[in-house]
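Recall from the previous lesson that a structure prediction takes nothing but the amino acid sequence as input. Here we apply that procedure to Odorant receptor Or1 from Harpegnathos saltator. The sequence below is the only information supplied.
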Amino acid sequence: MPYDITSTTVFWATVLYQTISLIVCANASVAHETLISGFMLQSCAQLDILCHRARMLPDTLRRESQKWRNCTTKGNPKAQERRIIREFVRHHRYVYRLAERINAVFALMIFVQFVVSSMVLCLSIYKMSTKNLLSFEFVWSLSYLGCMLMQIYLYCWFGNEVTLKVGHFKINNSKPKSTEVGTAVYEMDWGMFPVDLMKSLLLIATRSKKSIRITSGYMIALSNESFMKIIKISYSAYNVLKDSEG
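The prediction returns the following tokens.
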């Protein structure tokens, strides 16, 4: 401490200050991580809804067509079909814009978090290597290391989920993921659609070939592979420190 804490009043004031600061920083960190993860979960939920709408679209159009045939009200059933397809296309565009906005707002923050966490991983491992396995310092460093790993993995896991839920076409013997937008559009009953509606769906299918990627500083895509690369980089830096020490 830069001042004398032998006084009881000064000591407890310092303890109170540090306790409050620690609580504020911990809550800010949790809020920051859960906010970004929550937005990525929102993107996943919207993609799930979009896939469900895609699979239900033929049935929806059939029901609307049946309503127009059974009622005597004048109207244009084709206009109703175009409205339903237009809403579906707008929803698809909205989901992509949401993911792009999340990436634009939080990319730099995630990059800073990755850099700091990678340094902490390296230094924590280095510190653990100098401590006894049964010592308090080793256990404390191990728990802190686990927290840093969880912070990084949260971003990578949810970013990976967003990418998987967009997906590409899978026209093979493997079972496609039930939440892939491209596959959901491909599995529709295209034969019942008129040509103009097919063109709209074809645009969605083509757009789905380009995956949504949440990135760290527009350089590192958040995925499980990125998480493993960060672990490898941190371990390589640790080996450098150990070699320099020797």
